[in-house]
């Protein structure tokens, strides 16, 4: 894990993240974000978290972002965004100020911190493998895991209810949400 | 270190070359086979038995002019074909196609990269394959393309669920996410996974057919409804890439199913010749898909979705539950019990479906609605 | 050679902070709710990055487990959020967040 | 074999799933057949396991099968693990065997019920829960079964929930059982706190290893567990639910409220024999409660006029017998009576069901009489049941009841007091059963013309079940021929007390019991134990006592015949002579009224007071006050509610920055 790889990959991640913020077109922004996520996944690999690496690609790039793209295409609203500020005047300035403050805090924290760890800990061979994570997940973190399943269930129910057309019973040939654009 | 690097490089290049050279042959094979099944002749002008036809096609496509239709999103339009092909090729990296061989006094795995989370890797990559279709459809700035892209992506997302659930059953049976380990566990069980996971195999067979966008599930490019779907606006080499991606995907899937269910490189009988049995199994599988394509008419889109969500997902959940329960309770006999239980479960699912169809037909005499429509 | 030196934890922290700030700024600036959503995802990812880095540098795998939880919650949030956006679009045929201010006090 | 033990409870569960999910789609015939077949499958597996158990050497007759770890946190471990030892084997065979017959009976009995599949789903669920109860190898899993059977009992009592009395009875059963279950739960927590484990094996080993020091704790635990047993097995003071439970369909009464579930308490006490023997005080309580309940319920049964209620009180009384035997330290006798009782009481209930079937669901015996002419099969089998429960040889009740009465005197904790209770109860039992049988099947027909017109014998499926159960009720006793009789008839050794010998590894021998008792109290203080030693081999005394019991029972039956057939008016005349006694018995000693006055009324009054005084004034005042205060304050903050999401986000971010800044300093 050297500075060179770190800088290159993190540079890619940051550049594409910038692409998300500045792209006029939402689909381009989504593509930038996918790229950024992939770069972050690579960073995970550098941090010997190979399971998280795969899950990151499968979940973020493979599922979540596809869902975004899907909805964008379903709604098919492109380039409606006019001036950045919109109806909330001064929003741009506020955002810049807050962003700068936040970043400044992060940098200052790191720069000041004497107790920042300078080198990675020694880790056993199976660190970050599915077995390792599974053991941690199903023993020490069992309760949060179960709660997560509840969250997912609630989200599923909520999404189904929301996406169904109001006032209409579900269509007889009910394709899942957004099966066909209307 | 250096040796490993070189070996990996050589393996990667070899695999790439072999898989890519499969493609024209498969195209020819499919055209010939489907023609034969439909009482036609098929390509027979170029070369013996028309063998050179795909090469002629390729040459034609490559030297064609690259057209950017007006109004397309240039960047995405340009990237989409690649994004449909790359995941398929990359997935091949973790597929083991033979037991390790010894070269120059060193053991070399017949696998580009032995990742210990190979199964997850493949699932992750196959989830990326959606981008090609969805971006192509959107960037073409064409109604039919967009519809095709949406259809394809919805279909692929939907069918990833039964695939994932079925693969998880295999993982339960193997106890590892490494594809090498999957093959080895089948050797140690003395029985290929197709028996203890018969229902999973059937589900995977159907789901991958949909995932590959092949007939009868090729709704994303149904020419009678939406011209050619998401690649309507593509031509020349870019179109060729979509086409190749489809076939590369098919080879990858065939290899994956071979590893997961058919004992990988192991010989069912006779000596174990490196690669031979693996190739035979892959081809058997591909031929099966071609046969399916030639046999079944295209389904309707709501039928496709109903099949995925109402039948395959519950069935694969049942399969997963049964596998888990039997592995926990069955102890050393688990695989044997599963072999019986899986077939019983498959028959049960079949009977339930049959009964459901029969009931629906009975409830609306004279009008037989499609299977799986409504509830 | 500085390029081969070990990366200290602070570098990861700064990178994570940078990504988080970009996400936050994007959320404040953009008016397309889908893009805003994506900015939230970016912020979550910045958090994940810090989790994984901490797990690696402290040698405790639990950090990676938390990433797992974050991803699950993110998936749930996206499902509901996008469903809300679709529902709103059906009603108003626009998805400019500044158009949605009925909750004004 | 080991690997298939789990199939025994799994099969009924499968039946539940099939009937609960697809039941309403399946043809009735299929849904009933599935329910019967899964229970029969369990029965076959249970018998197979039993045969295997017998094939093992006597000391090692136990099969463990750990299925999977269930709860594993910090210091607490519990597994889903099954145990098959002689005691479990007896229970499994009774539950599935009798259960199967009752399922078959229900095919005919419930044939016209609209909720047919649901009934069978409940019945299978009950069988599953009961099997889990008796197969569990730890207290926690046993508790799951314990609660499961309670739930099924509730569901099935209230099966015809359109009738208010039925749903009320279900709730009553559930609530009364809650009291008992609470005791059980507390006992379980105590066990875990003291022994650090809930596995039977671990707990009992520790108790047996150190009897002297643990006596006090174990006494507390045993009393708490016994509270659970009184709830489930309908003993004083928690018996009140069982008579009302007769609102359920008759097969339910037969299966749950006579043959199986109510015996769970006896099973539990027998299962914990080591602990109870280590706590003589608790054991005495068990015996006293059992003896009291036996007599008490029998007296009530004397005057009841509802055919099912007579049988319900009889069940309570017989359960009291079982507890009395356990309390005397002879657990095998209790379990033996449990088994024979399962046969003849199921038979009696199903016979009653058959009578009700013929009488268009009328249950009042004052309107019956002379039914033998129309219902010969039911009548004869009912007589078999009556003779069995009255303890007339050679029917099974004779053997088991005789053994209990003998044990109550000769057991390690026996006493002549218990013996007197036992004998008097036996006489009363014979009398009220004779009264019931004579009034229903003999004498002048008293039913209305309409009912008379409809009288018919039950369909073959029900009749055959009655016949099979009658055969069981007649012959089951020969499994356990007492040594004295065996000596007299020069029977081979292995026929003598075969059942007791088979069961003893699970519930202890006489010597073990005496040893444990002496160890726990320090020897000399147990006078009874010495007496028991002296009595053990006195055949003349045993025959003498047997003769007394027999004579009383036979006399009671003859008296019954005299009172209700020869001189039909005698009973009423007697009641007129002793109005106070009669009314007290008729009203079940006013115990329901007592509970209502002491527990229910004050509870409701308290609830009312809290509602009017506390809830309306204080709680609502606080809630409304908060709402008003919020409304006032929120008027100030409305300014910030711009409606623009991004403004809020900016606010959140600013807040975060502020917090970080504070933390950073």
Which properties best describe this structure?
heterotetramer, B: mainly alpha, two-stranded antiparallel ribbon, C: 105 residues, mainly alpha, Helix Hairpins, 74% helix
Plain-language structure description:
The complex is a heterotetramer of chains A (182), B (375), C (105) and D (665). Chain B is mainly α and 375 residues long. Chain B has one domain. Chain B is built from 13 helices and two strands, in the order αααββαααααααααα. Chain C is elongated and about 55 Å long. Chain C has helices at residues 9-29, 33-58, 62-92. Chain C has a single domain (9-100), classed as Helix Hairpins (Orthogonal Bundle), CATH 1.10.287.
Q: Could you outline the blueprint of secondary structure elements for this entry?
A:
The complex is a heterotetramer of chains A (182), B (375), C (105) and D (665).
Chain A: H1 3-22, H2 26-46, H3 50-75, H4 91-112, H5 130-138, H6 142-163
Helix pairs in contact in A: 1-2, 2-3
Chain C: H1 9-29, H2 33-58, H3 62-92
Helix pairs in contact in C: 1-2, 2-3
Chain D: H1 7-22, H2 28-55, E1 63-73, E2 76-84, H3 86-109, H4 116-135, H5 139-157, H6 164-195, H7 200-209, H8 211-232, H9 241-244, H10 250-259, H11 264-271, H12 273-277, H13 280-301, H14 307-327, H15 331-358, H16 376-390, H17 396-410, H18 416-441, H19 449-454, H20 460-475, H21 483-489, H22 498-507, H23 510-521, H24 527-535, H25 539-566, H26 570-577, H27 579-586, H28 591-637, H29 645-664
Antiparallel strand pairs in D: 1-2
Helix pairs in contact in D: 1-2, 1-4, 2-3, 2-4, 3-4, 3-10, 3-15, 3-20, 4-5, 5-6, 5-10, 6-8, 8-11, 8-13, 8-23, 10-15, 11-15, 13-14, 13-18, 14-15, 14-17, 14-18, 15-16, 15-17, 15-20, 15-22, 16-17, 16-18, 16-20, 17-18, 18-25
**In oligomeric terms, what are we looking at?**
heterotetramer
How much of the sequence lies in strands of chain B comes to under 5%
Helix content of chain C: over 70%
Unreliable parts of chain B:
365-375
- Give the N-terminus to C-terminus distance of chain B in angstroms: 60 Å
Rg of chain B to the nearest angstrom?
22 Å
Shape, per Cα inertia axes of chain C = elongated
- Could you give the count of β-strands of chain B? 2
| Percent in strands of chain C | under 5%
Question: Which two chains touch over the largest interface?
Answer: A-C, 94 and 78 residues
The computed structural class of chain B is mainly alpha
Average the pLDDT over all residues of chain B and give the rounded result. 81
Structure described in brief:
The complex is a heterotetramer of chains A (182), B (375), C (105) and D (665). By secondary structure, chain A is an all-alpha fold.
